[in-house]
Specification:
- By secondary structure, the protein is of the alpha/beta class.
- It contains 18 helices and 9 strands.
- It has a domain of about 110 residues.
- Strands 1, 2, 3, 4, 5, 6, 7, 8 and 9 form a 9-stranded mixed β-sheet that branches.
- Strand 5 and strand 6 form a beta hairpin.
- Helix 2 runs parallel beside helix 7 and helix 3 packs antiparallel against helix 6.
- The longest helix has 28 residues.
- It is globular.
Length: about 425
């Protein structure tokens, strides 16, 4: 096996937290299956995907809807009335924007991710079905040219609730019909890596995501990136540290570790493990490893950071050379986002700005979320992002009278936060 990537290390930590996800010993059968049997089942799934792909978008829409209708309860197969009206309002916004800009939009359907529990699969399938309902609506109205591609994780961590045959077959279909993402390539056998990993590797999947966002095409992904308890580590915490390393954090690794030892901010064994690998790590990786002990199972499940852990985070930031005044602001911001089921995903919005909006392609955002308590699926108001002039970004939306309005977007960080809070209540 190849050595695990930093993302795989995070997933391994989450695997250790959730006992139901524990990695079982690598027996002779599992080794054989990974080497020879899984590639065959993957290939069968890919063949089924190619047959569906060759049948055309109409058949693909029918296939997804028929399959999901079969396994979804009827009360989740329709949007609430106000959401149905919002779906119809997509067309006036597109028409008015087209008259103004003479440009066709690409579409990004952002949906919430259900919490862990008995109803998780129920809501996940219902959300997928409504993604395709929206895709069908855009396709039949002439604004989209094909079915929406889902950004889907196909690694063992994502598919652990399925049996091995179903997960391998599903991964094969997903690799063909959608944008598949494998965050655990070291878990694949050599034949799977040679035949199937390619376009599912994290970097390649990112390029495919961008490539599909072209005028008249739609992509869908979970705004949270996964279960809330997992996205708090994989997205909220990691993006918090990434932003710090880019703009504010600059320290000598030796002095940083010495201060941690002096103030007793880490258990001695943890500090020794970190210190042994610190010379090979970047500042970002080192700080993320130091942050791990704060984010144990209970914290990730509840989203609540206790006063003591917040004080420890403050001391870690001070040790990294960040001013006391700025540290308080950063801790408050991290605590506010960490408790949410849906993170702000500032990095995602920055990618969309640099690779889609900045080159001149208008992007329509269509938010879809589930209400866990009321057991409903709701569509929120869509809007369009576009760069109207070099360095000038604007958002276009409908007012209550269905007239298009426009506002400048001065800060992507602020926009990502406001959009997420207003469209995803939890």
């Amino acid at each position: 096996m190849r050595p695990p990537s930093p993302t795989e290390r995070l997933i391994s930590r989450l695997t250790d937290y959730w006992s139901s996800r524990s990695v079982q010993p690598d027996t002779l059968w599992r080794a054989l299956r990974r080497t020879a049997v899984d590639p065959l089942v993957n290939a069968l799934g890919r063949l089924a995907g190619w047959l569906l792909l060759l049948s055309g978008s109409g058949i693909l829409f029918w296939f997804h809807d028929a399959l999901l209708s079969l396994i979804n309860p009827s009360h989740l197969q329709k949007l609430v009335p106000e959401s149905q009206a919002r779906q119809e309002n997509i067309l006036p916004l597109l028409k008015q924007f087209k008259r103004l800009s003479d440009r066709d939009c690409c579409f990004l359907i952002l949906f919430s991710h259900p919490e862990a529990g008995k109803k998780m699969r129920l809501f996940s399938l219902a959300l997928y079905q409504h993604v395709f309902h929206i895709g069908t609506f855009l396709y039949r109205s002439g604004w989209a040219r094909s079915y929406p591609r889902l950004l889907i994780a196909v690694d063992p961590f994502a598919l652990d609730s399925l049996d091995w045959f179903t997960s391998s077959f599903y991964a094969g279909i997903a690799r063909t019909l959608h944008i598949s993402l494998d965050r655990q390539p070291s878990r694949l056998g050599w034949l799977q890596r040679a035949l199937f990993l390619g376009k599912s590797a994290p970097t390649e999947a990112g390029f495919r995501f961008i490539a599909h966002l072209k005028p008249g095409h739609a992509v869908a992904l979970a705004q949270a990136g996964g279960e809330p308890r997992n996205s708090r580590l994989l997205y909220t915490a990691r993006e918090f540290v990434t932003a710090l390393s880019k703009h504010e954090m600059d320290f000598d690794k030796g002095e940083f570790l010495a201060r941690l030892a002096e103030e007793g901010l880490l258990p001695p064994k943890t500090l020794a493990d970190v210190a042994g690998q610190a010379p090979q790590w970047t500042q970002r990786r080192l700080f993320l490893e130091v942050l791990f002990p704060l984010l144990n199972r209970g914290v990730l499940e509840s989203g609540k950071i206790s006063r003591g852990r917040k004080q420890l985070l403050t001391r870690l930031l001070l040790a990294a050379g960040i001013s006391e005044a700025r540290t308080a602001e950063l801790c408050d911001g991290f605590e506010e986002e960490f408790k949410r089921n849906t993170p702000y995903r500032e990095r995602l919005f920055n990618i969309l700005l640099d690779r889609i909006i900045k080159p001149g392609i208008p992007l329509m955002l269509i938010p879809l979320w589930h209400d866990w308590d009321k057991e409903t699926i709701q569509l929120e108001n869509p809007e369009i992002l576009w760069q109207t002039a070099p360095g000038v970004r604007e958002r276009f939306y409908l007012d209550p009278g269905l007239e298009m309005r426009r506002e400048p977007v001065e800060s992507i960080a602020r926009y990502a936060k406001n959009f997420t809070i207003s469209r995803f209540p939890r």
